[in-house]
Amino acid sequence: MRTEGALVRSILVGVDGSDAGLRAAECAAREAVCRGIGLTLMTVYDGDLTVSVSRWPSDLLEREAVAAAEAAAAHVRERWPELDLDVRVVDGSPAAELLRHAQDFDVVVVGRRGRGGFPGMRIGSVAYQVAAHAPGYALVVGEEGMDPDRTEVVVGVDGSRHADRALLAALRTAELHGDRVRAVWAWSAPVFAEAGIGPWGRVEEEMEEEQNEALSAVLARRLLDFPDVEVVRQVVRSQPMAALLDAAGDARMIVVGARGARGFARLALGGVAHALLHHAPCPVLVAHQD
After folding, report:
1. Which residues pair with 284 in a beta bridge?
2. pLDDT tens digits, residue range 63-82?
3. C-beta of residue 27 within 8 angstroms of C-beta of residue 86
4. Around Cβ 220, how many Cβ atoms within 10 Å?
5. Are the beta carbons of 251 and 282 closer than 8 angstroms?
6. Is 232 helix (H, G, I), strand (E, B) or coil?
7. What is the fold, at CATH topology level, of the domain defined by 11-141?
8. Where are the domains of the chain?
9. 152-283: which CATH topology?
10. Which of 37, 290, 255 lies closest to 155 in space, CA to CA?
């Protein structure tokens, strides 16, 4: 029996009245219905901060938060009336409260930018903190939402434990939706090769063969549990961020580990995950190590 493959048993989505928050709620609801589970929708307002900084009455902010939650819930119920939906309105720091409640959920979903922030920002502080510190999986959804007509899930693979969690999530998601998985393994040439030193042509062939073998070995450990999922293997001599962005043009979702094989252990997010959260053309699912 595959117990590890049943990744998602509970989903939490944060909404704040923004378009990205509404797209996040739609995405979370669609995934919950597909998995036959319920959805918890939560709006957080910081009453103490409002009183101390802007002098707005906290009850006004609470009423706005309730209205935002109810509007998002009504939108979700209209499209998915069969969904078991729990609605919560919480007072506190949005990022801190979402992360605290996320301890009880397998996935936390947020919009890439909320109603606050500065013009031109690609990702808001709440979304970034949730993506960086979620205990399990964090799905960050932009204003474009998730296109249900797209049928490919792109996943970055590099042999790390975070990437293995990402691969598992990509395979499980593709299995549920009937999607194809594109497993992207990026590699870079050593410095001496870029400088034209030594017999690079022969070394390049050997290295490329090694990279293909490494990807095949990683996939072999997982594909036995997902025999019906089509997997496209893509080994690219490129920086991981560029390779994943190039592969994501027609993707429904990108799945990436919070840190890669070369990331610093103390960093909550590696450079690849950071870049994808800012520049990916579709939702990004960030996988943290168990």
Report:
1. 140, 254
2. 999 999 999 999 999 999 99
3. no
4. 9
5. yes
6. strand
7. Rossmann fold (3.40.50)
8. 11-141, 152-283
9. Rossmann fold (3.40.50)
10. 255
